[in-house]
Amino acid sequence: MTRAPANLMAVRSLLLTHLNVDKNRVRDVDLEPAEVGIVGDPAHRGGYHCGSDRVVNNDYSVVESPRDRNGLTLDAAALDVGQFRVTSEGRTHDLRSFSTWCVGQCTAGAADTRDLREIIYSPDGRVVRRWDRLGRRSSGDDSHLWHTHFSFFRDSIKAGRDQTPLFRRYLTSIGLIAPAPPEEDEMELTDKIRRDTGNPNRTVDDVLADLSNLRNWLISPVGAGGVVGPPSANSPLTLMLAMARAYPALVAQVSGLSSKDFTDEPAIVQGVLASLTPEKIAAAIPPTMAQQVAEELARRLAD
After folding, report:
1. Within 10 A of 146 (CB to CB), how many other CB atoms are there?
2. Strands 78-81 and 116-121: what pairing?
3. Taking the complete model, does pTM exceed 0.70, yes or no?
4. How far apart are CA 297 and CA 291, in angstroms?
5. If I label 293, which of 88, 163, 252, 270 is the partner at 20 to 30 A Cα–Cα?
6. DSSP class of 3
């Protein structure tokens, strides 16, 4: 039995949350639950609204693309959206502007449209147009004057791929959903680090594992199991550890020396006097000074 897949139900729920403004009553201006369909009625045969139990021979929704052939399951792969009208940020938006916007995104090749096979819509309520990624068709029946049909490649439905981003972007663009805050610089830096460790053969996980092992080795008792071995000989960490081991002995030596008096005054005086011979003293006195000393001594003796 054809079923409605979870990823298309999520799109349906998103649209109804924001476009069915008054959920307590039915209004023409609101997008009502009955206007958003996924599975065709029991009489419906063939096309993307049908799963594998309802497809027909040479069904275009299966045979025209390998994505559809390989993705065929009991899931339907289409979504119909009915009429609505909402005012947001001073502008009015309706099914026609919504459909035209979605087709524009498909034509521009937006990444979140890659799973859309076709959109059958009316830009003005008078003519029906069809955007077909495969370029097979360009029109549809008149029922699409008042509803828009979205077909999704069946393999994307089978894979359960999220189909809400395109529709969330539309609701954000018209102001019904607040835009997501920009990522902070720290997030960008983290993202850069995750992709580049400076070594093509080392991942971030490798670096984190090394840091974890180093931490375990530093805080573990000597000889403890379950941690990495000691660092390599002559590595910077080995030299640092040798200095750390020698530190207690160095402290003891400095403490011992600090309690000693290294000044031996008598020895210093004796050494100085031993070097002062009469000849050295005489040689050290300038001639003028010697004459002045002699004259002064003579004067005092005369007194």
Report:
1. 12
2. unpaired
3. no
4. 10
5. 270
6. B
In this structure, the dihedral spanned by the alpha carbons of residues 132, 136, 138 and 141, taken in order and rounded to 10 degrees, is -100
Give the torsion through C-alpha atoms of 49, 53, 57, 60, to 10 deg.
30
**Which two three-digit tokens encode residue 187?**
């997030």
Residues 115, 130: Cα–Cα separation, whole Å: 16
Strands (E), the chain: 36-37, 78-81, 85-88, 91-94, 116-121, 129-132, 148-152
CA 249 – CA 69 distance, rounded (Å): 81
Closest among 76, 87, 72, 15 to 45, alpha carbons compared: 76
192: left (phi over 0), alpha (psi -120 to 50) or beta: alpha
d(CA 12, CA 152): 14
pLDDT tens, position by position, 200-225: 777 777 777 777 777 776 777 666 66
Contacts 24+ apart (CB under 8 A), 102-105: 102/148, 102/150, 102/166, 102/170, 103/129, 103/131, 105/166, 105/169
Structure tokens at 144: 């699409």
How far the first Cα of the chain sits from its last, in Å, is 147
Q: Sign of dihedral through CA atoms 198, 201, 207, 213?
A: negative
Pull the structure tokens for residue 214.
């180093």
The two tokens of residue 61 are 């929704």
